[in-house]
Amino acid sequence: MFDTVLVANRGEIALRVIRTLRRLGVRSVAVFSDADADAPHVREADVAVRLGPADRSDSSASETYLRTDQILAAARRTGAQAVHPGYGFLAENPGFARACADAGLVFIGPPPGAVELMGDKINAKEAVRAAGVPVVPGSQATAPTDEDLVAAADEIGYPVLLKPSAGGGGKGMRLVRDRADLPTEIAAARRVARTAFGDDTLLLERWIDRPRHIEVQVLADAHGTTVHLGERECSLQRRHQKLIEEAPSVLLNAETRAAMGAAAVRAAESCGYTGAGTVEFIVPGIDPDAPASASEEVRDFFFMEMNTRLQVEHPVTELAVAVGADSARLDLVEWQLRVAAGEPLSFSQSDISFLGHAIEARICAEDPERDFLPTGGRILTLDEPRGEGIRVDSGVAPGTVVTSAYDPMLAKVIAYGPDRPTALRRLRAALADTRILGVTTNTGFLRRLLAHPEVVAGHLDTGLVEQTAQEQPALLTAPYSPTNATGPDASATAEPPSPAHLLYYAAALARHLELTPAADPDGWTDPFSLPSGWRLGGTPAWTTHRLRTPGQDPVAVRVRSITAGNVTDATDNSAGLTREVELRLDEGAAHRARATLAGDRLHLTVDGLQTTFSLATDATPGLAAGPVTWLGIEGDAWPLHAYDPVVENAAGAGAHHGALTAPMPGTVTVVKTTAGETVRKGQPLLVLEAMKMEHVIAAPHDGVVTELRATAGATVAMEDLLVVVTPAEDAPAEPAAAPAASAEPVEVRS
């Protein structure tokens, strides 16, 4: 075994590897960018080395985690004998694997030749086809031209799937249903592939109806033994990005499981594979209403690709697969290390079996209410779930700043149970107990997805999430979401208010509590400084809290004391506790309420119904509207801003009609327009990329580009002004010119 191993990655996978190294008594070396200087993986390692230019701060992946020379220098400097690449970044880069070998370092992964072969999806398909593994019909040219791809699509029929040959993780994939759309989609896919992977070669495959994505974990040593560790179902996806993974798959019978496992072993052996890897298959789904087929039949399945690294979802295999008579669990990172150190596998295929069921959910910095656009910010509160059968692999901590420079995944929550229903229940409960405030995430969305009737029944396919979002959005919408608070709270006082209105009530009372001054050392509080609304000879006055959430109209929550009828009552305000009050949302009905603050929990009682929210305040200096109140419940969280109509109206007076702002923090990769250009409604103006997502900014109407602030390669924050398109009838005769922007895309990360 090695004495020192460098982990060439960041976030949760770096932490995952470092913890196994510590358990084995191996010294760990972390690497970090300036943005990650205080990250958990840096603190957890035995030693850490900075990456990036010596003369300036640059945390981009291309200047840090993708710099082979700097990583090898860090290994030499710290005396590392081996490098673990994790996943992403350089994990599937054959050049990096060769560079490690040339530097006398062990690359903890397969041989460079295997990485290179399986990293080229076109040649990989031919290699496994020769080994007797079924493949999806599609293009067969080594480097197909646009014309080759169009011809292949015409031959196999639509719909078809475009995939970058050198890519992975779903990035750049395009589903094309109409021949007329294919040229545009080819161009977009090539651009993404060139930016992300440095290679714009594409392949084209037949789209399988109701497809299920099922992969098989393989493990091979250098002594001729290759085994499979069963399958993982990864069919719950959005934009080809996995959301939920589980093992075993509810679809497969024993015969199909054995056939797929044997095919995965042949695929690994065809390239001389060693270490841990994953062979991905596409499996035609079953129509739930169709007659059941014989249980012993082997279902169709087709090879998609092989990932020559550890997968994000490897924990479900570690939890659900047992080895030997004592049902021991495997640590796949440990076996990566042992195989790389030359040890043989200590078990055979007959020793491996499934025992129980495991399900994983990926928590990402993205906003389901804004079409899953990437988010960012500083994590104010982080509480990760605990309990029987719960595992959390996380890469963040309170205070972590989430940027657009890296992958959006923050953590993985995995649940294990003796059966699938138990694992599902445990994971839903764990996600409800996950509290992340300060950064909008998909946690609550994942919890609701796991409660979807089709998911519970095991009727999965890769299109289920998007189909549900279009046809049954209520199934996936957060009940407390401000998007549900349309119009004033018109419910009668006898009816409890809607959950969405409770969110606004909680924010208003949290701010109301902040108005209560701290008592003097002798316990006295000036009664006229309290937010009681007490008035001499009259009913208490309303205190109005004006609030807004991003993308929603502002609301006004009015609060007044019920009991402040005299000075004694008015001054009887305990810190963290409101007296009983009346609440009104805009012109809606009044409700009786009180709130109690206990630590970072706000207990809100409205009309006798108590609801508990997590509470945090972002008081970062420089926030335009002042401190932001964050409230969380059942895995969801929202920022609520103070709304000042005077300030907003003043700002609005100078706003541009037709102004287009950044819908997410990210990097401008392409600018397709110039100042003064006449554009048509829907015409693409620029492309913004962040966290594996490409977002096209299009003209909202016919008009003239009168202002262009975006430049290719520039990093922008959410809501930064990018371009202004003035309607044709309002455009000046000679718009002011601006420097033309380059249309060349730039690489922002792997």
What can be said about this structure in brief?
This protein is α+β, with helices and mostly antiparallel strands and 750 residues long.
Q: In one word, what is the shape?
A: globular
Q: Give the fraction of residues assigned to helices.
A: 10-25%
- Mean pLDDT across residues: 88
Number of strands: 40
Question: Approximately how much beta-strand content do the residues carry?
Answer: 25-35%
**Main sheet overview:** 8 strands, antiparallel
Which ranges are low-confidence, i.e. pLDDT below 50, for 5 or more consecutive residues?
Answer: 490-494, 735-750
Computed CA radius of gyration, to the nearest angstrom: 28 Å
Read across the widest sheet, the strand sequence of neighbours is 13-12-9-10-11-16-23-21
What is the number of helices?
Answer: 18
Cα(first) to Cα(last) distance is 30 Å
Q: Which structural category fits the helices and strands?
A: alpha+beta
